Amino acid sequence: MRDAFIVNVLSVLPRERLARVMGWLTRRRLPRLLHRWLLRWFVGHYRVDMSEAQGGIDDYPSLAEFFVRDLKPGARPLCDAVDAVVSPADAQVAAFGKVVGDIIPQGGTHKASIREMLGGDHPFEGGDYAVLYLSPPDYHRVHAPVSGRIVRWSYLPGRLFPVFAACVEMVDGIFSRNERLVTWIDTDLGQVAVVMLGAFGVGRMSAVYTDLVTNTGGLARDERPSDPPTIQRGDELGRFHMGSTVILFFEPGRVSWELELGQRPRVRARIAAALGVEG
Question: 184 and 118 in one domain?
Answer without folding.
Answer: yes
